[in-house]
Amino acid sequence: MEVVLDKQYPVSAGVDAAWTVLANMNELATCMPGAQITSEIDATHFTGSVRVKVGPAVAAFAGTIEILALDPATRTLKMMGKGADKGGSSASMELTANLVAIDATSCTLVGHAEVIVNGKFAQFGGRMMGSVSDMILAQFADVFSQKAAVAQAALAPAASAAAAPGDSATPAAAAAPAPAPQAPVVAKEFNALGLVWALVKGFFANLFGGKR
């Protein structure tokens, strides 16, 4: 079964800061719920895993990621991901993502993905898979925006220092304490049971909400 996704999400940072996240596969992976990079084969090939909770049970998917293109000029990433679980289900995704500038402190993350799912997950059908994907990607985009905002804040002092003329820094400015380090922003592990409940609630809300 194939699902095609075209999405746009607001990002609370300029394109330069957002690109530092999009171009870093280790940072980008932690935007995805339950995902992590387990090894780096070379600059464009990685292995990784995704954990999905269903109540107390945990399903694990192992796979590979290949960066097909990384263009700083257009702020575009193109990648291919493939994975499978021990139960025989498998999935592949070809993703093209790019950043579109709005102003100095905001931009838009635009993505096009073609996802192919085989095995038991394909039995859910395109509509269910679309709803699942919407919820996962919404969390991904939220964490991505948070990471980009942190990168934006880190870039601001460096830009101010570069803009300052000569040795004009005052002793007070030189003595100013460095900002405290922030905890890494990481997506929460995906709970499929919570997702199913959300979908059920959404179904009945639409069913009864649409009746007048």
Description:
The chain is α+β, with helices and mostly antiparallel strands and 212 residues long. It is built from 5 helices and 8 strands. 20% of the residues are buried. Strands 1, 2, 3, 4, 5, 6, 7 and 8 form an 8-stranded mixed β-sheet that branches. The protein has helices at 15-22, 25-29, 125-163, 171-174, 192-209, and strands at 2-11, 35-42, 45-54, 57-71, 76-84, 90-103, 106-118, 190-191. It has a single domain (2-157), classed as Alpha-D-Glucose-1,6-Bisphosphate, Chain A, domain 4, CATH 3.30.530. The radius of gyration is 20 Å and the shape is globular.
Q: What's the topology here?
A:
Layout: E1 2-11, H1 15-22, H2 25-29, E2 35-42, E3 45-54, E4 57-71, E5 76-84, E6 90-103, E7 106-118, H3 125-163, H4 171-174, E8 190-191, H5 192-209
Parallel strand pairs: 3-8
Antiparallel strand pairs: 1-7, 2-3, 3-4, 4-5, 5-6, 6-7
Helix pairs in contact: 1-3
Helix/strand-derived category reads: alpha+beta
Major β-sheet annotation:
8 strands, mixed
In DSSP terms, counting alpha (H) and pi (I) runs of 4 or more, how many helices? 5
Tell me the CATH architecture: 2-Layer Sandwich
Inertia-based shape = globular
Q: In CATH's first tier, which class applies?
A: Alpha Beta
Name of the CATH superfamily: START domain
Helix content: 25-40%
Element-level helix/strand string: EHHEEEEEEHHEH
Q: Which whole number gives the mean pLDDT?
A: 77
Strand content: 35-45%
Taking Cα atoms only, what radius of gyration do you get, to the nearest Å?
20 Å
**CATH fold annotation:** Alpha-D-Glucose-1,6-Bisphosphate, Chain A, domain 4
Instruction: Give the tally of structural domains.
Output: 1
